[in-house]
Design goal:
The protein is about 75% helix and about 0% strand. The protein has about 100 residues and is mostly helical. It has one domain: lambda repressor-like DNA-binding domains (434 Repressor (Amino-terminal Domain)), CATH 1.10.260. The radius of gyration is 15 Å and the shape is elongated.
């Protein structure tokens, strides 16, 4: 997941980043992984880190650096957008059936 500098700027100056800094990264990582039905290895690959590093984040033994915190937020936003889009599509399908 390669971030362009302008994306990093937008992520770091996004009001949602304030929430991220108050977030328990261990809980967030685990929630994103479970919601996406990913393994720890798949999450590590998506975030561009080793499995060991990811496992330490999820266990609460370490905190990700700003670069990886931005990647986690980006993944969270992407997953929320996909879920929102899926919900909209389901709504349209239900309306067509009615």
């Amino acid at each position: 997941m390669e971030q362009r500098p302008e994306q990093n700027f937008l992520l770091l100056h996004n009001p949602a980043m304030n929430e991220l800094f108050d977030t328990n990264f261990a809980e967030l990582c685990k929630k994103l992984r479970e919601d996406g039905k990913f393994t720890q290895k798949e999450m590590a690959t998506k975030l561009g880190v080793t499995l060991n590093a990811y496992q330490k984040w999820e266990a609460g033994e370490r905190q990700p650096s700003g670069k990886f915190a931005a990647r986690i937020l980006s993944l969270q936003i992407s997953m929320q957008e996909r879920q929102s889009q899926a919900n909209q599509e389901n709504k349209v399908k239900k309306n067509r059936k009615a």
